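Project outcomes to date are best conveyed with an example. Our students and postdoctoral researchers have been running inverse folding experiments weekly, and each run begins with a structure described purely in tokens. The record below, which covers 169 residues, was selected by the lab manager from last quarter's runs and is presented without edits.
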């Protein structure tokens, strides 16, 4: 399995799906998207921290925004909001992930806590032009809990990947 190809593919698929469903269903779907899709996005980003360069990661984020827009021009505001929120939260995630010591699952969940906060603050402000504290809190909690579940699901895979990566060095 080539993780450096498979993970970016699923990352783009998750972002495009989240953006288009938000375009079609509006603000009310964002907590559900946050739990299922953005929780996965946060964890896939942490997998990419281990398997891709910073430039390649940023390129994948840009690609996901462009694809969202090209599939449905009505998603322009959502794609822009998603792009800005993901890029800013990606920097937060990168910093916290690489400063946190310990297991992959600890590093991933710690960075997701902070990057999910950042993403949840920025996205609705740009996408909908409003700050709703209930939506913010629901999104942040949903992203963190969803991300936590995704880390549990992917922990064995990541442990094997990191072990193999360490043996290659």
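After processing, the design step wrote out the following sequence:
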């Amino acid at each position: 399995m080539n993780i450096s190809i498979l993970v970016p593919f699923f990352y783009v698929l998750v972002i495009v799906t989240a953006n288009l469903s938000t375009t079609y269903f509006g603000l009310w779907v964002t907590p559900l998207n946050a739990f299922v899709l953005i929780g996965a996005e946060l964890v896939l980003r942490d997998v990419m921290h281990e398997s891709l360069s910073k430039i390649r990661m940023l390129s994948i984020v840009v690609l996901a925004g462009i694809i969202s827009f090209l599939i449905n021009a009505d998603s322009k505001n959502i794609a822009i909001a998603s792009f800005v929120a993901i890029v800013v939260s990606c920097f937060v995630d990168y910093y916290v992930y690489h400063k946190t010591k310990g297991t992959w699952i600890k590093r991933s969940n710690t960075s997701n806590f902070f990057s999910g906060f950042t993403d949840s603050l920025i996205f609705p402000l740009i996408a909908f032009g409003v700050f709703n504290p209930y939506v913010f809190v629901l999104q942040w909690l949903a992203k963190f809990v969803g991300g936590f579940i995704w880390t549990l699901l992917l922990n064995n895979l990541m442990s094997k990947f990191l072990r193999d990566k360490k043996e290659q060095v």
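The mean pLDDT is 87. DSSP finds six helices and no strands in the chain. The training component of this project remains on track.
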